[in-house]
Every structure is written in C-alpha cells, then in structure tokens.
Amino acid sequence: MLQVENVLKSYDKNEVVRGITFGVHKGESFGLLGPNGAGKSTTIGMISGIITPDKGEIKVDGLSIKKNALDIKRKIGVVPQEIALYPTLSAKDNLMFWGKMYGLTRNEAIKRANEVLEYVGLSERAKEKIETFSGGMKRRVNIGASLMHKPELLIMDEPTVGIDPQSRNHILETVKELNKNGMTIIYTSHYMEEVEFLCNRIGIIDKGKMIALGTKKDLFQRLAEGTVIKVGVNKLDELFLNKVKEIDEVGKVIPRPEDLTIEIFVTNHQKVVGEIITLAVQANVNVHSLEVNEPNLESLFLSLTGRSLRD
Amino acid sequence: MKKSLLIAWKDFTIRVKDRKGFVTLLLTPLLLTAILGFALNSVMGGEGGFPETKVGVFVSDDDDLAEAFVSDVLPTIVFVKIKESKSEEELRELLTEGKVDVGILFPKEWSSGVNQGILKSVTLLEKPDQRTKTAVIESMLKSYSEQVQIHAVTTLTVMNDLSASVTASTSEINMKQVASEIQLELQSISGGELKEASIGEKNVGSMQYYAAAMAVMFLMFNMTLGAKSFLQERTTETLKRLSMTPTGKASILLGKFLGTLFFSFIQFIVFFGATSTFFKVDWGSNLYQVITVGFCYSFAVSGLSMTIAAFVKEEKTTDVISSIGIQILAILGGSMLPIYLFPEGLKTIASVTPNKWALTSFLDIMSGTTWSELFPAISILLLLGFITLALGTWKLKTN
After folding, report:
1. Which of A167, B51, B142, B384 could form a disulfide with B300 if both were Cys (CB 3.0 to 4.6 A apart)?
2. 3-state secondary structure of B317
3. Other CB atoms closer than 10 Å to residue A261's CB: what's the count?
C-alpha cells in the first residue's frame, strides 16, 4: 500500500528526516513511534503530499507522490495533530465541507456526514457549532472529517493529544474497528500504550532516523533485557552502580539524578532483585522503592536511545 | 474552480454567521450614514453636493468686465445663486441678515486698467462661518481676473505688433470659454466633489455622500478580514488540511480570494439596498454603473486582502491595520470629510487610495455621469485588484 524509501528532509541545514525507509501493507495497522521532534510529523507531511522530500521516493499503491500527488491524496485521509476544523460551523457542516473537498456531491456529503457522525458517536450534536464541543468531541469530529471520503489509507498524527480518557478510549476503539473493516492505518504517537494496543507493526523514529522496525514480537525479542527494575535510592553511589552492572543478568544501568532512581535492564528479574538489595545494603545505600516493569515499547525505546519517549 | 467556489462559499458562510462582524460591517455603516447624513445636511447644503452658495454682488458702475463676470461666468456654476445689490450698504445688510453667504464689491472702474494688465482690488465680504464658500468664490474671481488680464494684454500686444491703433475690447473675449476655463480650474482646485457638482446633471446631498462614503469605508474592512481569515486558517491548521485534500495551491488561494470578494460585494449590495430603502438614498439613475463600481472596488479590496495575508504573519498585525490603517485611508479617501475641504497636498495623496476612486465614482454616478467618465476609476480599481492579487498569490505560493 505504502512504500517510503530513503526519504530525507532538511530545513536550513537542520536534517529533520534522515533517510527513513519503511513499508505498510494493505489492511495493516502500522505504528510510528517516537518522541516529540523525532520527525514523525514531517514524515507524515511528506506522505500526505504537503511537504516535498529533498531525496527519496514515496509510493502509494505504486503511484509516486512526485508525479501523482492529487491521485494519492484522494486515497489518503489524514487526521492532523491539531483540531483542523472551523469552530463557528456545525459538526455536520464541517464534515460536509471536507467531504466535498474530496469530491463528494452535496447529497453524498449529507449521507456520509450522517454515517460518520453516527460512527464517532456525535449524531445528536450534528447541528451544534464545533466551538461548543469538548476537546474529546472535537477530536472525534477531527477524525470524522478524514473519514468522509472513505480513504484506503488513514494516517493519524497523534490523534489523542490532550483529551479525557473516555474520548481517548472511544477513539482507540474506533480506529481498531476501522482497521478491522479493512482500512490501512498509520498511527503516530508518543504514547507507546496506544501504539501497542492498535498496531501490528511498529517503526520507532528518533532524531530523524528509523531506529527499530518490525512486529511487536520482533521488537521485544530484540530487547534482550526486556524487564526494567526501577530502584529508588537515597544516593547514587558509584560503587553500588558498578557492582550492579557486574551481575550477569543485568544489561544497561541508567542512573537518574533528577529523582534519585536507577533503571536497571535485566533478563530475569526474579533472580536479580534479591542480589540488588544485598548490594545496596553492602554499599550503605537505602532502597526506598522498587518497581518491576515488564518489557514494553517504552523500555525498548529507553534501551535503544537511553532516553524516555516523553523526554 | 469548483473547489475554489466551495472554499469561497465556506468563508462567506463563516462571515455571515459571525454576528459581531455583521454588526461591524453592515449595521454600523448604516447607522453612521444616518447620523452623518442628517447631521451634516445643512453644512453640505441640503441636496447640493457643494453647498449652495448665495453670492451678493454690487457693481459700483457699468464696468463691462464686472458685469460679464456676474451675468456670464457666475451663473455657469450650479451651486451659486446670485443676488445683485443696489448699494454697498444693501450688500452688507444682506450678508448680516444671512441672506447671502459671500459678498462681492466691484470698485468703480474696476477694469479700466485692464489694457495695462491692471485690475483694481475687489472687496470680498465674508461671514466667519462661510470661509469655504468665500474661498471658492475668491478662487473663481481670481481665475477670472487672470483670464481677462491675459486676454487683454495678449490682444494689446498683438495689436501693437501689428502697429494697429485698435484697443482691446471686452466684446472680443469669449465669455463661455472663460467660464469653461474657470470651471476646469475650480475642478482641479476643489477635487472630485466640486467636479461632481459642476459637471453632473444632479447635485449630491449629504445623505448620498455619506452613504457612498460609509459603503466605501466599511468595505475596506474586508481587506483585513480576508487576511485574518487566511491567518486563522494557518493557525488552526485548516489551511494545512486543505492542502492535504486533492486541491491545488492555486485553487485554495483563489477560493480565499473569492470568499472575500463574494462577501465584500454582497455587503455592498445589501448596504446599497438598505440605504436606498430606509434612507431613500438616490444612488443615481444607472444601476449598472453602481454595481460595476461596487464590484470593482470589492475586487480591489479582496486583492489587497491577499497581499496583507501574504506579508503579515500575525493576526494582531491585521488588527492594527484594521484599526489604524483603514481609518487613515478612510480620512484620506474622503469618507470622513469631503475632499474639497482638504489642502492641496492631501488631495494629491488621496489619489493613491482606492477608496477615493470608488467614492468619487459613486458620487459621479449619483450626479449623473457617463461610462467613459467612470473608465479611469474602474481601470485603476481593477488594476489594483489584479496587481495585489498576483503579488499576494505569488508570495503565498512561495511561502
């Protein structure tokens, strides 16, 4: 469905996207994960045809974005990160407008707007102005506007930013259902739990580069030290840290002075926890908290970059 | 084109639904037209474009040139009403009683020295509150005197050259031509409004003047409203979303331009209809001319909105342009005060404002004018619209 090959984009010598390559199969739900400023939105912009890549090639259904931008735009629906709607128009008028911009006739737009409003659970508020909606409801209409022309590929750029958990769940369920009905989805987020919930395959972007790409299973297998033990201490003792690193099952050890914690990547936490406590006592370090986190994308990102996704 | 019309219609709908904007752009100009039209009715001479000017004249003897001025030149100016006095005292009395606005006292043998290029001083009697009228009559008299002196001296010179002993005679001066030349001179002195009164068949009243002036002024707000709409689309990322649809950049920009054009033109039509209906404003007998000028002006304003959108980055800046810039343009273009009251320099500057061209065109139409008279203003407005549209579109596309 989508092929992105060695795409580059710079702004004033600042390389925002540095040779990204990935593909998305028809009917797949693909997650693009990365911290803020990683290059996700620029990548989405290039796939959507609003940003021209400096180098590389993007193809949708075999059509090159350079030569067939308008044809590709008809196949794609993009949910922008911002609420890109007209606040003084009603939900239905907004949906109809965006539908018509994709070539729907007036009657088609009316019919489809009713369907979409039903789908996003806002039929009863169809005639109300967007400015009177809550953040979550606006987000739902924002998604609905991209569904008006029944796109083959739906690209969602952080669609759940700043909303309540109820709306967030509604959006996630909607996306899941769309994918189940055969729509190809590209979902970008820095919330790894959303990507984990929705996507079969995941690409992780950092500093404009694709640092990991594969199914969830593939990625977690790459993460040899899948479990992270987070230890809260009274001081970051050098000797204690070195001793912990010497344990066979321990991989990376990341001290965090800002909250006096140590993140320890381990392969077998049941075996290691006791040993860590013993070493702490020997080094005269007080342990006041201990958290064991199973492997997830957050820990994968941490292991790959040494930084948190939300940093 | 279909997509452009969709964007234009969407913009139009948004603006129509904006109650604050509706009040600002339609009710306020109607209210101001009513207030200014009624308030300045007497100052602007009721139904006259330039106020009717009652001129009292006393010619001390049978001076031919003075008589010619009174009987042949003054009557050609439509706003002038002449009252001849039998004595200086009577003239002063008429002035005191307010029966005349300006008094002209021709001295004995006023033009006896004309062959030597000398004319005696004429006394102008003025009322302190009628300074403008006096100034206009003074200009006429000065112009007439100069014309007469030139004719007389030229004739004498030619005669001398021919060694003939014939003196210059006033009968050889073509008074119609002199009057015509004075009119032309007065037009250049007094700007479009005076031209309106002197050339057109009908006079323009204060209500008519301010209906046109307010229409022109409040249509100008669409310059910033159009630009603001563009900047808002940029801020809320709807512009980005529009770019993601299968719509070309040019179509999007054209749509934004057309949105402002539709709204401006409809605003004008509604204002035109409202002033005609409620205030009985006579916009002239040629509806096509009114609509054409209204459209051309809307076109120019919409083009300017694209240029502002292209060069301004923040909505706050458009607010500044809206609150200060438009008011300056409105004053310069004659929307607040008639241009004939301006000093010379300001009259020249006024010619660079699009609203001045639109206003004078509307006033021309009200007083009765031809398409060829309107052609320069229409051309300037359309040209301004095209240039600013092209400049704005080019800049926005490259952005």
Report:
1. B384
2. helix
3. 18
3-state secondary structure of A163: coil
Pairwise CA distance, residues B61 & B73, whole Å: 18
What is the pLDDT, as a whole number, of residue B190? 41
Instruction: Name residues whose C-beta falls within 8 Å of residue B375's C-beta, 6 or more positions apart in sequence.
Output: none
Q: Domain map of chain A by residue range?
A: 2-216, 224-294
Q: Pick B5 or A34 by higher pLDDT.
A: B5
Average pLDDT over residues A274-283: 89
CA distance A249 to A235: 23
DSSP state of A79: E
User: Among A65, A86, A150, A153, which would you mutate to test the B interface (most chain B Cβ atoms within 10 Å of its Cβ)?
Assistant: A86
- What would be the CATH architecture of the domain defined by A2-216? 3-Layer(aba) Sandwich (3.40)
Of A252-256, B37-41, B68-72, minimum mean pLDDT range: B37-41
Neighbours of B234 (CB within 10 A): 16
Which residue(s) pair with A289 in the sheet?
A232
pLDDT, residue A226, reads 66
Cα-flanking dihedrals φ and ψ of residue B46, to 5°? 60, -115
Cβ neighbors of B379 (< 8 A, separation 6 or more) are none
pLDDT at A309: 60
Task: Name A7's bridge partners.
Answer: A20
Judging contacts by C-beta atoms under 8 Å, the chain B residues touching residue A85 are: 236, 238
Kindly state whether B399 is in contact with chain A, defined as any CB-CB distance less than 8 angstroms: no
What is the torsion angle, in degrees rounded to the nearest 10, for the CA atoms of residue B204, residue B205, residue B206 and residue B208? -70
Do the Cβ atoms of B368 and B285 come closer than 8 Å? yes
CA-CA distance, B372 to B385, in Å (whole number)? 20
Q: Tell me the CATH architecture of domain B53-199.
A: 3-Layer(aba) Sandwich (3.40)
Q: Are A1 and A25 a contacting pair, CB within 8 Å?
A: yes
In the chain, the amino acid numbered B89 is E
- The full DSSP string for B233-286 is HHHTTHHHHHHHSS--HHHHHHHHHHHHHHHHHHHHHHHHHHHHHHS-----S-
- Collapsing DSSP to helix, strand or coil, A21 comes out as strand
- Residue A15 is predicted with a pLDDT of 86
DSSP A235: S
Q: Which of A68-77, A201-210, B189-198 has the lowest mean pLDDT?
A: B189-198
Q: Does A49 touch chain B (CB under 8 A)?
A: yes
Mean pLDDT (whole number) for B350-355: 84
- At A90, the pLDDT band (50, 70, 90 cuts) reads very high
Chain A CB contacts of B240 under 8 Å are 50, 80, 82, 84
Give the E-state strand segments of A149-267 in sequence order: 153-157, 184-189, 201-206, 209-215, 227-233, 250-256, 261-266
Residues of CATH 3.40.1710 domain(s) within chain B? 53-199
Residue recorded with tokens 């037009």: B187
CA–CA distances in Å: residue A69 to residues B4, B233, B398: 18, 22, 18
Q: Does B14 touch chain A (CB under 8 A)?
A: yes
| Coarse DSSP helix, strand, coil percentages of chain A, rounded to the nearest 5 percent | 40, 30, 30
A224-294 CATH fold: Alpha-Beta Plaits (3.30.70)
Helix (H, G, I), strand (E, B) or coil at B70: helix
- Residue with the bigger pLDDT between A120 and B297: it is B297
Residue A232 has pLDDT above 60, yes or no: yes
Q: Which residues pair with A231 in a beta bridge?
A: A262, A290
Q: Do A145 and B242 touch (CB under 8 A)?
A: no
For B19-59, what is each residue's pLDDT tens digit?
Answer: 777 777 777 777 777 777 666 665 555 544 556 788 899 98
Q: What pLDDT digit, counting tens, does each position of B131-140 carry?
A: 777 877 887 7
